[in-house]
């Protein structure tokens, strides 16, 4: 590995072409020696796979040994034993209860060979492209013969997609690529592989025509399918297996069946994720179809069904059903998860995992811990599938009957929303909801955003107000917990912080004028609306320019074109939700979490920019937003964003004080500033004083005035529904009616 990695690619090309015979002879002799070896010992087979993989750059340079290396890796996979559980349920290679070290070593070696093949294909995909059909036939034959596990099939399928997609032109912002025959040929190759990979899943999942019982939302059916009690014979086998490896006899109540079903569906969901990651990124408006488009309707329906069942599992009714089955511990956090939340070292996490993983069977094990891992991995996998499909396959994900799909997605994702735990909300908001907000095509926002965001935003705002009231304003900013705090309290607080940060990031995505592209990188994070240099004032000016929708003819007001950001769209079509977004973001500035406040600040800047041309936002910005920004300057842990907060206060005064007296009233209420002090500030702002001088003046007013605390309903929040959600009047309905009369789609 070290030698091959250090060789310049030009020398490898010379060796492959024969112009450097000395190096060619050395590399060829080494390769032929490795190709002649046959290892059955798993540890040696793993090293053998690594050694063959290290030839990847030489093979890409044009070496004729490429097919020999790939064939050898196939041989290494099948020659290693693939023992299965006695009751495998037709699932090849299912882990037996309490597998011994030999089984684990063989399992790891086979997977290492598959990884080597994937990496080799990723290194030289164009060289393998002429052999794609033969490779696909080989993988299909091994799978049909039961010689591959689900995970191995996924790796080799991803290898085929890496080869099929090689040489595909970029389609992200190149509509002219639609006429490129290379793109059409690449998409045809990818579709052939995708169709083969999804064919068995189409049969297993019923093609979407009828949902399996476990995906119907019935908690009892879900538990019966994945968590059925072990029968007497299986329990006896598990006890004997535990005795063989020197493990204490397991308690019958701690053994859970359904391993074959868990193993299969877990890898099936992750297969879809791999398919979507390896295929082309086709924007919504692109005329060509994504290879996954024809499979998206039935596959997404099944994913939504699984998420409904998982959400109901954590509801009050679901917990009662789980408790009745004697598996209440199934829904608790594992010790390793707790260590991750607490930010402990990787060594501590690994030690906790080793102590909990009694049977070593992964998601196909028979222990409570293995089943917990399955539930977490299944949920995370479903969220990742939705995120990638929403970004890379928008036509198949959003298209068709958009209103029906949007309603189905909202109903599924928001099922038992109040029961989704904070540890699950983080990935839910970041992956599933965030991707839809960022990438939903603008013309389909009415079908997808309308049923999804209003109930979600309202719930999260109310829920987080209650949670922060419970945590308390004295919560530590990531510091060591106080001696009186229990581990459960610290974990709870940090999970609340994580949810708050993801909610703030989601709202920042709504405020970004760059959303609605119908296809983005799945790794793209929430946009940062802060310029690289400059103040909040510069950011607000940039936002005003980005939000500007005036045509060359100079249209303005209610005749403006389609809103660019999701926040603008909400303010027109769902004004109560748009106001709730602005209020929630401003309220987050008052909570003692620096990172959440930094993520929420762009929404406040957007509100100030929008208020300059939307009369409905003037009072909201001059009251709640301004009071929260002022309160932010009094939160010690927010000291890093105090300059930006002071700059935003200056912008509110400069842009809105001449339009409403509420700005002065808010200053008087929150700082105790006299009319004369505010008049002097207004004068200095409008005469163009230096930014530093104005910040010092504003800080002096805030710190020296007889401050009156902002109402708890406006800042810290309490219980119940969102506090003081300000109605924006009927202008949104009026604009929507005018746009409908003009034939402009929502």
Task: Describe the protein's architecture and organization.
The chain has 746 residues and is an all-alpha fold. The chain has 34 helices and no strands. α15 runs parallel beside α21 (402-413) and α21 packs parallel to α23 (445-471). The longest helix is centred in the middle third of the chain and has 27 residues, at 445-471. The chain is globular and about 90 Å long. It starts with a helix and ends in a 5-residue tail after the last helix.
Please write out the topology.
Blueprint: H1 2-6, H2 9-17, H3 21-36, H4 42-53, H5 56-60, H6 66-79, H7 101-123, H8 125-128, H9 132-144, H10 150-164, H11 181-204, H12 219-226, H13 232-244, H14 259-278, H15 296-313, H16 316-324, H17 335-341, H18 346-356, H19 368-392, H20 394-398, H21 402-413, H22 422-439, H23 445-471, H24 487-511, H25 536-547, H26 566-573, H27 575-588, H28 594-611, H29 616-632, H30 642-656, H31 662-671, H32 675-686, H33 691-704, H34 731-741
Compact overview of the structure:
The chain is an all-alpha fold and 746 residues long.
Features:
746 residues, mainly alpha, 63% helix, 0% strand, globular, disordered C terminus
Taken as a percent bin, the fraction of beta residues is: under 5%
Round the mean pLDDT to the nearest integer and report it: 83
Work out the helix count: 34
Give the total of beta strands: 0
In terms of structural class, how would the helical and strand content be classed? mainly alpha
Instruction: Assign an overall shape.
Output: globular
How would you characterize the largest beta sheet? none
Helix proportion: 55-70%
For the record, give the distance between the C-alpha atoms at the N and C termini, rounded to a whole number: 57 Å
Radius of gyration: 30 Å
